């Protein structure tokens, strides 16, 4: 018996529509990405589209604790979450926050140093394209809310 390959497996390169599933219509930055798989399409989107979006830049530059990229460094334990929910403040020691930042950037300590320096100083010039791309690629997929759909699978209306 000969196994038939799925239509998607036969393709070397295809076009994928990639967009943030959670974004509002006005803020959605969608793109058509040439890739060999959904995972590759999302990876390219992160590197070439999301990393340079105004939304991503604002999220990275936001030094507040609630609902920002920085939140992951202040509120991770159950105790920290409870304290923040009840008292509306973090209370997490600066050394712990910095160690979490360095752990996030473990694959690129130089970028981690830049982010720590930015967070301490507020100097936005420290957050360059390389930092933005690194963060976009490193954040877990569930935080991005991205979906990649093979264009051939979408209805075509004429």
SSE order and pairing:
Layout: H1 7-10, E1 14-20, E2 31-35, H2 38-48, H3 54-61, H4 71-74, H5 78-87, H6 94-104, H7 109-121, H8 129-138, H9 141-144, E3 146-150
Antiparallel strand pairs: 1-2, 1-3
Helix pairs in contact: 2-8, 6-7
- Using only C-alpha atoms, the radius of gyration works out to 19 Å
Strand content: 5-15%
- The order of strands across the largest sheet is 2-1-3
Largest sheet: 3 strands, antiparallel
The H/E string reads HEEHHHHHHHHE
What structural category do the secondary elements indicate?
mainly alpha
Q: Helical proportion?
A: 40-55%
User: What is the count of DSSP helices, taking H or I runs of 4+ residues?
Assistant: 9
Count of DSSP E strands? 3
Residue stretches low in confidence (pLDDT < 50, at least 5 long) are 1-5
Give the overall average pLDDT.
84
N- and C-termini, Cα separation: 40 Å
Write a structural description:
The chain is 47% helix and 11% strand. It contains 9 helices and 3 strands. Strands 2-1-3 form a 3-stranded antiparallel β-sheet.
Short description:
The N terminus is likely disordered. With 158 residues, the chain is mainly α.
Features:
3 strands, elongated, 158 residues, mainly alpha, 9 helices, three-stranded antiparallel β-sheet, disordered N terminus, single chain
């Amino acid at each position: 018996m000969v196994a038939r390959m799925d239509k998607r497996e036969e393709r070397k390169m295809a076009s994928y529509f990639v967009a943030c599933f959670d974004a509002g219509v006005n803020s959605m930055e969608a793109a058509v990405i040439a890739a060999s798989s959904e995972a590759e399409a999302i990876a390219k989107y992160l590197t070439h589209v999301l990393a340079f979006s105004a939304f991503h830049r604002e999220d990275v530059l936001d030094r507040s604790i609630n609902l920002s990229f920085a939140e992951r460094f202040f509120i991770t334990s159950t105790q920290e979450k409870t304290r923040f929910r009840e008292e509306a403040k973090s209370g997490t020691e600066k050394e712990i926050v910095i160690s979490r930042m360095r752990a996030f950037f473990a694959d690129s300590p130089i970028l981690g140093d830049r982010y720590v320096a930015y967070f301490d100083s507020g100097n936005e010039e420290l957050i360059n394209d390389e930092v933005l791309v690194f963060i976009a690629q490193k954040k877990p997929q569930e935080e991005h809310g991205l979906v990649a759909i093979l264009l051939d699978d979408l209805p075509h209306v004429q």
